[in-house]
């Protein structure tokens, strides 16, 4: 977790390499801080006003260790200086090798355990300070990329979650400018804040002269320090001369003293900025999807200082906190960090999947930015865009997609999809261009396809679009049957204002909006191989076909079907009966006579569904089918593409959000051969005249390709095996639906008082709370999430650092979304806490 305390300033010290004077200068800073605190007090620095030194990992003999060196050269300050070494290994070599040669010595089970060791020592320091001011210096081992105890991580990556302001000790040696700049760029690229750079003078190489200008241009404080005396004479004489040198550089106005003063001042300025950001934000920012009349106090504003893994590190002006059943109580408020880790339950608004600050994605972005920046794309190409297009065709577009069109985000991606589909339908049915008239789309109530004018018109009137003056809903929207666990049982219920006919057979019971029916397991719900020949499938087909006939009789004209497969995200996390969506596609594709007139009768395919629908995947039938997988695709729900769930491939599909692993905006719209052909001619005006200045941005494409490769590698390594087993999937190679959230837990929560239903798939869990008002305008979920956010979740066995949960509500629906790599221990802890909070609600 991030460590930021009002009275304890923490600085982490990195070296550009070994033998650059890192411990020498860290000792100088320790001494300077002690002297500074003593001078700022009316009496000498007592035991409650302290400076601390921590070496997380050290190699070499005890009497030659860095801790021993610091103790020898700060001995005159007595108890004002405390030192600690977390893990000491005898062999003077790389930490991971030294640890292997000492199996009898303590060894952390993971790099996270090392992080928790630093956190624990920090809290011990706070307790010793008893509210007084102090400083802690954390000195790393070797260079910036010295191996962590658990390869292949290096210490710059493994220590990143602490987000400690850092000091870089430059190299004064031959080649030191290069190693220093490489070290700085590595730290900067990983999101470290560099508080200062120090360099020992070398009278011959004079690296400090170049480095002073380099870091000065970047606004980074730089100090050069006179070199220590050469060793000569007795040990006692050497130590005396060294002590005189330390006294000289820590004297008022000298380098070490100035650095210590600057570090304290910067620490206070950082806290001041955090405290001032809520008020500044309330005066300057217009938030999306936010009623500013309800969020108008500083206490309501979450200041995100950084993010890592599943969490972002946030500051609240007055953080209300209560204990969960497993919370370890602390003795004093001063031991609480101003920054708290909050599990990003909204997955940063549906975009996050690979964990915040993922190093592989960061490096991919930096490489593409350094190689290309941004370059125009029409009639050109570059490797990131080309390789990503081929990868998407091979994976989510396998067997049906011919072309990939890039745009900026999900909304523009769906705009492109609509343009593609409407042109293709208009060309075939003779109403394209200015002769088009009123043409609508077919979709689902609760669907959401973005906030641009065109994408809004492709959805029913709702809280998202009805207040927009230009909105004009263009289409017909079915109220889809919804899948939930209700009272512990997988259940399908009809919803919305549709007038559903009487249920097809026994086993259906009346419900407020029609009927509902239960299943023995969630796998049975998604087993379309057996359900497609059921009476319910015939019922769906008949209902959908008769609805189309009535609409056409009214003179309605349609040019596309647009749907979010599997789950309607922003509309309330509504999991749609897959059989209904499959039957909708089937009927649309066999109804060319309705959408295009009698001359098109028979252009649809006949017969039952088969694997991937048994048609020529390059030729659309009836109407073009658009899968809006902006939210749901790319493993969000445990599958790559909904084609594998619905047994139908689309004609057009749209991907965004987690396409780049949550790092950058990018969208890809995939199209089949017949869709692309509708724009193919020798006339420019027939082209798809749509584009964006940042189309196929190389940085976004490179990151997206890396994000896909990371997931593929995880799958090849047997990823998600345990999660699948929890839902009875993957045994003996069988496929099925699964989730990071436990199936038993989902069923149990659905029985809770005040819970209408629960559903989970992949990374997503949605809990619908009972509420008379319901819908997006309800405040029921907000009240629950506000209470949940106040609870600190801890691990009795320290499997993870304490955190809280943050998420945004969807009316009366509470949703929590994990990443694709959330730890099982974190999942179980969140499940327990959510269940406890439901018991209090």
From TrEMBL:
<dbReference type="GO" id="GO:0030170">
    <property type="term" value="F:pyridoxal phosphate binding"/>
</dbReference>
<dbReference type="Pfam" id="PF13500">
    <property type="entry name" value="AAA_26"/>
</dbReference>
<dbReference type="InterPro" id="IPR049704">
    <property type="entry name" value="Aminotrans_3_PPA_site"/>
</dbReference>
<keyword id="KW-0032">Aminotransferase</keyword>
<dbReference type="InterPro" id="IPR005814">
    <property type="entry name" value="Aminotrans_3"/>
</dbReference>
<dbReference type="Pfam" id="PF00202">
    <property type="entry name" value="Aminotran_3"/>
</dbReference>
<keyword id="KW-0663">Pyridoxal phosphate</keyword>
<dbReference type="GO" id="GO:0004141">
    <property type="term" value="F:dethiobiotin synthase activity"/>
</dbReference>
<dbReference type="InterPro" id="IPR015422">
    <property type="entry name" value="PyrdxlP-dep_Trfase_small"/>
</dbReference>
<dbReference type="InterPro" id="IPR027417">
    <property type="entry name" value="P-loop_NTPase"/>
</dbReference>
<keyword id="KW-0808">Transferase</keyword>
<dbReference type="InterPro" id="IPR015421">
    <property type="entry name" value="PyrdxlP-dep_Trfase_major"/>
</dbReference>
<dbReference type="GO" id="GO:0004015">
    <property type="term" value="F:adenosylmethionine-8-amino-7-oxononanoate transaminase activity"/>
</dbReference>
<dbReference type="InterPro" id="IPR015424">
    <property type="entry name" value="PyrdxlP-dep_Trfase"/>
</dbReference>
<dbReference type="GO" id="GO:0009102">
    <property type="term" value="P:biotin biosynthetic process"/>
</dbReference>
<dbReference type="GO" id="GO:0005739">
    <property type="term" value="C:mitochondrion"/>
</dbReference>
<protein>
    <submittedName>
        <fullName>Adenosylmethionine-8-amino-7-oxononanoate transaminase</fullName>
    </submittedName>
</protein>
């Amino acid at each position: 977790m991030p460590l930021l305390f009002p009275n304890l300033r923490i600085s982490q010290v990195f070296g550009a390499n070994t033998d650059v004077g890192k411990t020498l200068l860290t000792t100088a800073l320790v001494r300077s801080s002690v002297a500074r605190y003593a001078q700022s007090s009316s009496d000498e620095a007592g035991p409650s006003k302290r400076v601390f030194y921590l070496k997380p990992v050290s190699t070499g003999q005890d009497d030659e260790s860095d801790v021993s060196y610091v103790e020898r050269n700060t001995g005159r300050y007595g108890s004002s200086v405390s030192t600690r070494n977390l893990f000491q290994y005898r062999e003077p070599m790389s930490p991971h090798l030294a640890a292997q040669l000492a199996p009898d010595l303590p060894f952390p089970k993971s790099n996270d355990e090392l992080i928790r060791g630093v956190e624990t020592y920090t809290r011990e320091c706070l307790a010793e300070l008893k509210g007084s001011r102090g400083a802690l210096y954390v000195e790393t081992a070797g260079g910036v990329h010295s191996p962590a105890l658990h390869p292949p991580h290096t210490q710059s990556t493994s220590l990143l979650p602490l987000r400690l302001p850092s000091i870089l000790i430059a190299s004064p040696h031959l080649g030191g400018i290069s190693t220093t700049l490489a070290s700085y760029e590595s730290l900067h690229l990983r999101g470290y804040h560099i508080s200062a750079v120090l360099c020992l003078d070398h009278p011959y190489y004079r690296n400090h002269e170049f480095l002073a200008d380099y870091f000065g241009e970047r606004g980074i404080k730089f100090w050069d320090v006179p070199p220590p005396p050469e060793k000569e004479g007795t040990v006692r004489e050497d130590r005396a001369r060294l002590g005189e040198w330390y006294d000289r550089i820590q004297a008022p106005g000298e380098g070490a003293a100035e650095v210590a003063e600057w570090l304290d001042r910067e620490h206070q300025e950082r806290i001041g900025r955090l405290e001032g950001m809520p008020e500044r934000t309330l005066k300057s920012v217009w938030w999306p999807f936010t009623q500013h009349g309800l969020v108008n106090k500083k206490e309501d504003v979450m200041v995100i200082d950084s993010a890592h893994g599943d969490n972002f590190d946030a500051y609240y002006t007055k953080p209300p906190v209560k204990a969960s059943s497993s919370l370890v109580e602390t003795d004093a408020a001063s031991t609480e960090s101003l920054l708290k880790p909050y599990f990003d339950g909204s997955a940063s608004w549906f975009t996050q999947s690979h964990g915040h600050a993922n190093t592989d994605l960061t490096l991919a972005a930096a490489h593409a930015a350094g190689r290309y920046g941004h370059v125009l794309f029409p009639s050109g190409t570059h490797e990131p865009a080309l390789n990503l297009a081929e990868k998407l065709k091979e994976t989510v577009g396998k067997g049906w997609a011919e072309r990939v069109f890039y745009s900026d985000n999900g909304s523009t991606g769906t705009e492109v999809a609509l343009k593609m589909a409407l042109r293709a339908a208009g060309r075939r049915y003779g109403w394209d261009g200015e002769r088009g008239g009123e043409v609508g789309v077919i979709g689902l109530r609760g669907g959401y396809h973005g906030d641009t004018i065109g994408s809004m018109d492709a959805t029913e009137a709702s809280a998202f679009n009805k207040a927009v003056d230009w909105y004009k809903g263009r289409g017909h929207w079915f109220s889809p049957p919804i899948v939930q666990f209700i009272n512990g049982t997988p259940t399908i219920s009809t919803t919305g204002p549709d007038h559903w006919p009487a249920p097809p057979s026994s086993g259906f019971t009346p419900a407020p909006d029609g009927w509902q029916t239960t299943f023995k397991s969630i796998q049975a719900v998604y087993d379309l191989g057996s359900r497609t020949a059921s009476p319910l499938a015939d019922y769906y087909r008949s209902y959908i076909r008769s609805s189309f006939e009535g609409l056409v009789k009214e003179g309605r004209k349609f040019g596309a079907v647009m749907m979010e497969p599997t789950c309607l995200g922003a509309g309330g996390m509504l999991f749609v009966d897959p059989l209904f969506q499959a039957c909708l596609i089937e009927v649309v594709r066999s109804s060319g006579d309705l959408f295009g007139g009698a001359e098109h009768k028979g252009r649809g395919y006949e017969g039952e569904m088969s694997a991937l629908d048994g048609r020529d995947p390059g030729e659309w039938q009836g109407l073009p089918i658009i899968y809006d997988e902006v939210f749901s695709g790319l493993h969000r729900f445990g599958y790559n593409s909904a084609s594998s769930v619905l047994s139908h491939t689309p004609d057009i599909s749209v991907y965004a959000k987690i396409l780049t692993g949550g790092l950058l905006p990018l969208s890809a719209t995939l199209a089949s051969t017949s869709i692309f052909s509708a724009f193919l001619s020798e006339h420019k005006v027939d082209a798809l005249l749509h584009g964006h200045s940042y189309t196929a941005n190389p940085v976004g494409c490179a990151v997206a390709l890396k994000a896909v490769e990371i997931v593929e590698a995880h799958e090849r390594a047997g990823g998600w095996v345990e999660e699948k087993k929890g839902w009875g999937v993957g045994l003996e190679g069988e496929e099925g639906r699964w989730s990071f959230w436990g199936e038993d837990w989902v069923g149990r929560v659905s029985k809770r008082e005040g819970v209408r239903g629960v559903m989970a798939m992949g990374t997503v869990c949605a809990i619908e709370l009972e509420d008379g008002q319901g819908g997006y305008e309800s405040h029921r979920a907000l009240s629950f999430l506000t209470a949940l956010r106040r609870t600190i979740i801890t691990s009795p066995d320290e499997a993870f650092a304490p955190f809280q949960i943050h998420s945004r509500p969807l009316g009366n629906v509470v949703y929590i979304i994990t990443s694709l790599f959330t730890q099982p221990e974190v999942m179980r802890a969140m499940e327990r806490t959510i269940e406890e909070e439901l018991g209090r609600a």
